[in-house]
């Protein structure tokens, strides 16, 4: 499965770069365990951040940010099979879960809920 990891990125940070970095690290901490279960992890910021830079975003919430940040995750959800919603308050992650449910995707709330893949490529 292609699994979107959803959780806080800018939420609760007051746009403090150190706190935003910590939130990204929390998201990324789930990537390797998902991969080792035989799936492909995805985080919206892995796609959005380079696009935001190229488009000239100066800070979270500016016009460029709003054009790219959440739409990236929504487009990724068209390709994903599931979402892992990690803990923490996040309007964007809650939107991702809502979209995933509408599309009939699986939503997990704990890494241990994700099954091992039936694949020769599983770690």
Percent strand equals 5-15%
- In the CATH scheme, what's the topology name? Rossmann fold
Mean pLDDT: 95
Please mark out the parts with pLDDT under 50 across 5 or more consecutive residues, or reply none: none
Brief account:
This protein is α/β, with parallel strands linked by helices and 123 residues long. Helix content is 46%, strand content 12%.
Q: What can you see in these coordinates?
A:
- The protein has one domain (2-112): Rossmann fold, CATH 3.40.50.
- Helices cover 46% and strands 12% of the residues.
- It has 5 helices and 4 strands.
- Helix 3 packs antiparallel against helix 4 and helix 4 runs parallel beside helix 5 (91-102).
- The model has no long low-confidence stretch (mean pLDDT 95).
Element layout with pairings:
Blueprint: E1 2-6, H1 17-28, H2 31-36, E2 40-42, H3 44-55, H4 63-77, E3 82-85, H5 91-102, E4 106-108
Parallel strand pairs: 1-2, 1-3, 3-4
Helix pairs in contact: 3-4, 4-5
